[in-house]
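Sample pair:
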Amino acid sequence: MITLLGKAASRAGRCLWALEEAGIEYEHKPVDYAKGEAKTDSFRAINPNAKIPALTDGNVAMFESLAINLYIAQNYGKGSLWPDDAAGNSACQQWTLFAATELEPPSAARLVEFIFKTEENRSQEALDAAAEKTKAPLDALEATLRDRDYLTGDYFNVADLNVACVAEYLVRTKFALSSWPKVNDWITRCLARPAFAVMLDIKATEMAA
């Protein structure tokens, strides 16, 4: 059975979303990075970076949230999360790297300002710089979604999930997407999925405990 390690209020939430989309049985261990629980020898044996999330599945042990989602999709979501054709497969890998290298750096910079700083202490300069760097990847998404509902065609798969879980940072920090209406519609559809709602419930339960 798959075991996912990491609290939902972290990048592990992305993997919980993918697991719920795949509809498979899994175990979730909410390892808390802030409490040093990722620095134990047993955890470092899975992820030598001592960061969350991490995943085990039989003799497979891996880390990096977006890579974990590709693994889940390839092994447990064929025909749904993972397309059946080579073109679809390559597109999922392409958009995953896009999420990690193009969209996440400015989106995460914005999230840091909102989560770790009070409204009075937020750096407008940092927010403006992040907003400027976000425009190009949003333009690329807008162009792709001009004639389709999802990134690789007419159905949701791991390409959408891996980009949407990063784009969600923009939604969470109230970034105005009005200049990118297709992106706005797409992210609204993605975040309305039942599996995403399940992940939010898990996150809320953990935070209330």
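The longest helix spans residues 86-116.
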